[in-house]
Amino acid sequence: MKKGKSTKKAKKQEKPKYVCEKCGLIISVDEVCGCVDACDIICCGEQMKPKK
């Protein structure tokens, strides 16, 4: 067997993403503040929905 780097890659933890249903804008949350249970992210006058 060869010794060296493993070919397995570590899984990246997915960042939460939100989408505007009117214009299609997609944002990702880099860091959750934790100050409240949920924050309203508004675009085009409506709350953005979590992207699946």
How is this fold's topology laid out?
Layout: E1 17-19, E2 26-28, E3 42-43, E4 46-47, E5 49-50
Antiparallel strand pairs: 1-2, 1-5, 3-4
Task: Explain what the structure shows.
By secondary structure, this protein is mainly β. The protein has strands at residues 17-19, 26-28, 42-43, 46-47, 49-50. A three-stranded antiparallel β-sheet has the order 2-1-5, with no helix packed on it. Strands 3-4 form a two-stranded antiparallel ribbon. A hairpin with a 6-residue loop joins strand 1 and strand 2. It is flat, with a radius of gyration of 18 Å. The model has no long low-confidence stretch (mean pLDDT 83).
Summarize this, please?
This protein is mainly beta. Helix content is 0%, strand content 23%.
Quantity of strands, as a count: 5
Discrete helix count: 0
For the report, how would you describe the main beta sheet? 3 strands, antiparallel
Query: Given the helix and strand composition, which structural class is it?
Result: mainly beta
Q: What ranges have pLDDT less than 50 throughout 5 or more consecutive residues?
A: none
Please name the defining characteristics of this protein.
single chain; about 50 residues; mainly beta; three-stranded antiparallel sheet; two-stranded antiparallel sheet; flat
